[in-house]
Amino acid sequence: MPITAIVGAQWGDEGKGKITDVLAQDADLVIRFQGGDNAGHTVVNDRGEFKLHLIPAGIFNPDAVNLIGPGTVVNLLTLVEELDMLEARGISTANVRVADRAHLVLPYHVMLDRLDERERGRRKLGTTGRGVGPAYADKVARHGLQAYEVRDERRFRERIARSVELKNRILEAYGEQPLDAGQLADDQLEAAARLGDRIVSALPLVEDFVSRDARVLLEGQLGAMRDLDWGIYPFVTSSNPLAGGASIGAGIPPRLITRVIGVVKAYSTAVGEGPFPTELHGPEADALRERAGEYGATTGRPRRVGWFDAVAARYAHRLNLFTDIAVTKLDVLDVHERIPIAVRYRLNGMETDDMPPTGLLEQAQPVYETAPGWCVATTSARSREALPRRALGYLDRVSTLVGAPISMIGVGPERKATILT
Ligand code: GDP
Predict the structure, then answer these.
(1) Active site includes 13?
(2) Which CATH architecture has domain 268-310+331-403+410-420?
(3) Residue 21 CB–ligand 1 contact under 6 Å
(4) What is the pLDDT, as a whole number, of residue 40?
(5) Distance from the alpha carbon of residue 308 to the mean position of ligand 1, in angstroms
(6) CATH placement of domain 103-195
């Protein structure tokens, strides 16, 4: 079995959690490689409906180890809540591991995330307010604390005291109440104690699985358009959701990743701010959003919705070189008689199929072609042959435009509503 990265090919929320859950039934190790608890992967399977934030979607396979990788940022307090939620619903979390090099998201990061958004005002980023950006900022600025540091209580308390002293100056400048370093450290240490021996050195663990030719999944969060380097900066996340980021964030040498699955929705959605060329507005958007249930799993915010943007998905393919793509939510389009697909952008009187940087993308107009809809329910289809001819035509067009073959088709939220082709 190859080592497989599962990455978002649009703006995020493509259904990576569901695809990971499907493939994790045959996996030995599942690793989240970037991001934090700002993720909201909704998984629907025989155990119920779950919203996962930091724990990999391999958690429903009791035999798989689920590693929160070194490239993630971890809020120990919310991680404990997530473990409790799963345990309360009968899902064992004994096989969850946290990389000891993962950085901690601390309460001041959460506060600074919200204050920073407030200061940005009209040009806010639309973050989930989980402190993920500020935690990565501290990591890059070399002020961060890593998970292993909880093991040495005295040193940890000293490190927290120094950090809180610095952050309190900023919080006070914003007119906020200063934080109590002692209390903050107590809370972190209490959560760390709950994690017990789940905080581990990631590389030996990964090497052990790889040496046994184990089946490994690398689960991404968000999508190419939110990549820190290649996305719609500054409306991006603070890490790299591209497959290139999977190598560093999981501790898997690049040559070992043999399969890269790009997950694309059959249309587009975006949470947060930033350019989104195919965005729909008004009643058409409301109808699509309602039908598709497009509300953020972490924030409950209504998602922005629009038609499939082949320029964006092909851009994701250019950056990831997908071996194959999984097209999710095909069923959502069952009711449309005609389905527009953006194939190029018009910009400054010229047409382009390249992805311009943010300021220019804001001015770009999508150039559409229109595919005929199928107007038949696809939710019960379990094979390619059971799909209407026009739905297959739409999928073929998507595959051609992106440049990669389709290996999976989603026709409903449940695990079983997945066609493997
Ligand atoms: P992720 O963050 O990429 O895992 O995506 P989200 O979980 O945020 O959003 C995907 C949403 O679509 C979730 O509510 C899933 O349950 C749902 N979903 C995934 N695949 C399908 C599908 O094929 N059809 C339908 N109708 N819903 C799907």
Answers:
(1) yes
(2) Alpha-Beta Complex (3.90)
(3) no
(4) 84
(5) 16
(6) 1.10.300.10
Q: Per the confidence metrics, is the pTM higher than 0.90?
A: yes
Q: What are the angstrom distances between the C-alpha of 374 and each of 90, 124, 229, 241? A: 40, 39, 38, 33
pLDDT tens by residue, 317-338: 999 999 999 999 999 999 999 9
- AA letter at 348: N
Fold of 3-98+199-261: Adenylosuccinate Synthetase; Chain A, domain 1 (3.40.440)
One-letter amino acid for residue 274 of the chain: G
Q: Are 263 and 328 in contact (CB under 8 A)?
A: yes
299 lines ligand 1 (CB under 6 A): no
- The residue behind tokens 């297959």 is 392
Residue intervals in the chain for CATH 3.40.440.10: 3-98+199-261
Average of per-residue pLDDT across 399-415: 98
The confidence band for 1, taking pLDDT boundaries of 50, 70 and 90, is low
Catalytic residue among 21, 41, 103, 109: 41
195-238 pLDDT tens trace: 999 999 999 999 999 999 999 999 999 999 999 999 999 999 99
Number of neighbours of residue 17 by Cβ within 10 angstroms: 25
Instruction: Give the atom of ligand 1 at the shortest distance from the alpha carbon of 293.
Output: 14
- Find all residues with CB under 8 Å of 372, minimum gap 6, and list them: 337, 338, 339, 390, 393
42 CB within 6 A, ligand 1: yes
Nearest CA to ligand 1 atom 6: 13
- Residue 293 Cα to ligand 1 middle (Å): 9
Which part of the chain has CATH 3.90.170.10? 268-310+331-403+410-420
Residue ranges, comma separated, of all CATH 1.10.300.10 domains in the chain are 103-195
15 lines ligand 1 (CB under 6 A): yes
Distance from C-alpha of 6 to C-alpha of 22, rounded to nearest angstrom: 12
* Ligand 1 contact, 14 CB (< 6 A): yes
- pLDDT of amino acid 214: 97
